[in-house]
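Notes from hallway chat w/ T.B., transcribed later so I don't forget. T.B. wanted the structure written out for a chain they're using in a teaching module, and asked if we could keep both sequence and structure tokens in one place. Agreed to drop them here.
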Amino acid sequence: MGFSNCDTCIHIYRAIIEGINFAFMERMRLMKRGASHRFEETYWGGSQSDEICQITADMFGIPSVCTQPHEVAGIGAFKDYHKAVSAMAHKKDGFIPDMEQ
């Protein structure tokens, strides 16, 4: 797997985050190919970690936005998509990719 006794829980945690992001990146590639869509930023509602958002921005090469609130599942249902987005997802913090990473 590439881990050694020099690796700490931080290395393993980062590897897990990167693995999840690679899965998201593959889905984005499929969406781009199927719909010719161009992604300009990513939104992360479940992440309360600035580090995760920065790693994501670095991997995707586009800005990553952490939203507030973190958990929106219990807010309720909306009849209109745009009203739902404006009611549930508010930009909290933005992270610019560091292309050297």
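Follow-up for T.B.: The chain has a mean pLDDT of 81. Might be a good example for the class.
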